[in-house]
Amino acid sequence: MMNSVVAIDGLRVVRGGRPVLDGLDLAVGPGVTGLLGPSGCGKSTLLRSVVGVQRVAGGTVTVLGEPAGSPPLRDRVGYQTQSSSVYDDLTVSENLRFFARVLGRPAASVEEAVTAVDLTGHHGQVVGRLSGGQRSRVGLAVALLGRPDLLVLDEPTVGLDPVLRRDLWALFHRIAGAGTAVLVSSHVMDEAERCDQLLLMREGRIIAQDTPAAIKAQAGTDDVEGAFLALVERAGGAAA
């Protein structure tokens, strides 16, 4: 049994009278865990539930031994949403100092976060003039303020070129190697191979959870996308 960082039991989320997540059970351990599935399958809803900002209709979400969103987790969970969480008209340092004050983080955490995302030397640059990959790293730096035990990232590599995506995944593994569990979502199946553990999601259900190698072996395929399609067919539905 893995040492769970996140434990979810019977999670139910309803939107517009329709269940988005209906009785979801899963566990997330240390390292880099990828949540992969097509757009609209419920990934963002699940991540919002993990960080405690989603209204749920039933079930429990426990994070680091505490109920999701509870005050003891305020300094222990970092979260980066799909939309930009930083101000384009401020410099890198101004953004981080602002969020450090808002989050009640010590001033020393700003330099630590900048170093962690490899933006040393960009302190004085206005965020709106940075490249897409650098802007994503500024958002990551905000999420890392205070050295969280869990980092939750909602499609942080969307729209980036392959080189920038590769660099960000290398960063996720460095962060995990320093002791922070990373839960990252994506709809790009080729990113699955970069994860320690995978959660494959479709229509609000987790259809597989294991290492990339184990999921491919289970499905009898050479790649995760093929495994996803095979698992969907076995479940009796056409792939979205």
From TrEMBL:
Q: Name one Pfam family in it.
A: ABC_tran
* Residue ranges annotated for the ABC transporter domain, each copy included: 6-228
Q: Which domain of life is it from?
A: Bacteria
The entry's protein name is ABC-2 type transport system ATP-binding protein
Q: What PROSITE patterns does the entry give?
A: ABC_TRANSPORTER_1, ABC_TRANSPORTER_2
Gene Ontology terms, MF aspect: ATP binding; ATP hydrolysis activity
Checking CDD domains in the record gives: ABC_DR_subfamily_A (cd03230)
Ordered alphabetically, the record's keywords are: ATP-binding, Nucleotide-binding
